[in-house]
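Bench notes, afternoon.
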Amino acid sequence: MAPFYKATCEMFGWSVDGALLAAMEAANASELATLSEAIKTAQENEGESEVCAAMLARAEMLMRIGEKEKALEAFDEAYAKTVGLGPKLDLLLTKLRLCLFFDDKKLTSATIDAAKGLLEEGGDWERRNRLKVYEAVFLISIRSFKKAAALLLDSVATFTATELISYNRFVLYTVTTSILTLPRKELKAKVIEAPEIVQVISEIPHLYDLLNGLYDCQYRTLMAALVGIIDALCEDRLMHAHSRYYWREIRVLAYTQFLESYRSVSLGGMAASFGVSPEFLDKELSGFIATERLSCKIDKVNLVVSSTRPDHQSAQYQATIKQGDLLLNRLQKLSRVINI
């Protein structure tokens, strides 16, 4: 892994171990020479499938040592020689792992689109389901949790992409994204009662308490579990960039769900339900109210939190008036252009 070792040292400002680097480069050169000779032999004496297999072995070796650009070129060369939808999809999935590892979002998106194009021509269900997991992982990396949750839930019963993530990690992603994006009814049917998830959720620390704490309105349990889950997400390669967002959104979701049951509630009573101090909750709610994330207000004199549920009918009326004004303005502009 000499190329990856050099890139990592440059990124973090570490000093390079010259002897170690030289040894790795020599081992890489020897293996590449062997693979290049195998490609040459296959081209001279064997068929197209043997040539393709030799080229793919070279591409996978370059990927393994972290030589991104050369590996991508080698994959493209192998793809051009590959015949059949199945082998082409397998090659694109391998290329996707390289793109995801180096967090190349543009190339990842393009490769997913290419794989989807092949699937429209045919392809078996196993590769189709694996691609769903790959796409979901990419969507998580760009914080498109709703689309990711839909793809992950579709793959729960048929998950086979163990070369990308473990099943427990897959369940962690499925549950954490579903909590934010699914309504309560769907959350129960698709996640809480899903036998594939129930089977392993207890193996993932804090995940069961997070899921059931929210659904069962056990907010003290939820808040305690959320701390543990955030620690796990901070250490996760995909989710660490979104851990603060997730921390905030789960709390907003919990506070909103709690306040839907009350017209007004004492600040102390609400704080006790969440297992936090009134002072902390006061500061917390104030921030979310100021950013219009919560529909409530705090009476600082009587220490009461009052829910201010929006009137949906009035909101729809105002939206209709606004859209009507916008339409009239556009028609007026269009009439001027036509008259000219």
